[in-house]
Each structure stands twice: as structure tokens, then as C-alpha cells.
Amino acid sequence: MPAAFENLAIAQHRDTLRSATIRGGGYRPSIRRFCVEDYVYLQQTAPTTLDVTVGRTTLRVQEVLPPGVLMLEGRDGVVWKDHVRNSAPCHLPNVDGTMDLSLAIVRAGLRCMLCGSTDQAAHMLVCDRCSRGWHMSCLTPPIDVVPTGRWVYPRCTSEGR
């Protein structure tokens, strides 16, 4: 029993010192600095604690914007913004940086910009500039085969988006 009290006294003393350091301004949180082409983990929050689909996602930094915002790119080619505080450095030496556009999926409920239908998501193309969708059969002229690589809706190209 005396050993347990000794350990408790040591822990209380350590907590007292830590608290004094934090209150006295001796603690400075480390600022994470990321560079283009770094790999990061993106912190994802689950809506409930029972959500097991949330995990670590490894992304590549495409651009670092001034107010601490990162432009991140996944293996599926999707690009989005997130703040530095939601990212952690990835130090894995074996990260596969190749793009696999077959991983990209059409999000549920995406409507075709021409017919307005949400059916046939497997036959829908999503513009890589505006993220809107079109059925391959609704386009003029219709497209029979899914194009390889990035696809941009012709009007987005002509409008300079």
C-alpha cells in the first residue's frame, strides 16, 4: 500500500508542474508546416462513436494557402480544402503516390445536368472542374466509353472555368 501512495504523490507532483508550465506560458503548441508533395493524414470525425467507416486517409498536399489551409488530393483525383489543424504528417516510406481514377465514384444523389435524373450513376461522368454530372447518353454527341484520365465538360472549357 505505501508504494501506491508514493506513485500517487509522484503523479500529483508531475501534474502540478505541468499545470504551472501551461499557465505560465511555457507551453507553446507546435505549428505544423507542410510543403507541396508532402503526404498527410486527414482527421475525420465520425457522426457517432459507432461509425466504423471513419479511418485514416492518406492524402497528398497539392498547395499550401496562406491562412493555414491545405489543398489536398486523394488517389482518386478528388481535390478539397482542409485546415492544417485537421492534418497530421504521414511518415510512411511506402506511400503509393500513383493516381487511380477508377477509385473515383459518383456521389449518391448527383443529378444529371441535362435530364435531372439521379438514376444510372454508373453511366454518369463528373466534370473535374465544376464537379457536376452528366449521363453519357445525354451528352451531344453521346459518349459510349468512359474516357480515361480527367474529363472536363466542353462548356466548362469554353467558359474558362
TrEMBL record:
Pfam families, A to Z: PHD
Keyword Chaperone set for record: no
Identify the domain of life: Eukaryota
Q: Where do the PHD-type domain residues begin and end?
A: 109-159
| Keywords carried by this UniProt record | Metal-binding, Zinc, Zinc-finger
GO MF entry, a single one: zinc ion binding
Q: What's the protein name? A: PHD-type domain-containing protein
Q: Which organism is it from?
A: Marchantia polymorpha
Q: In the record, what lineage is assigned to the organism producing the protein?
A: Eukaryota, Viridiplantae, Streptophyta, Embryophyta, Marchantiophyta
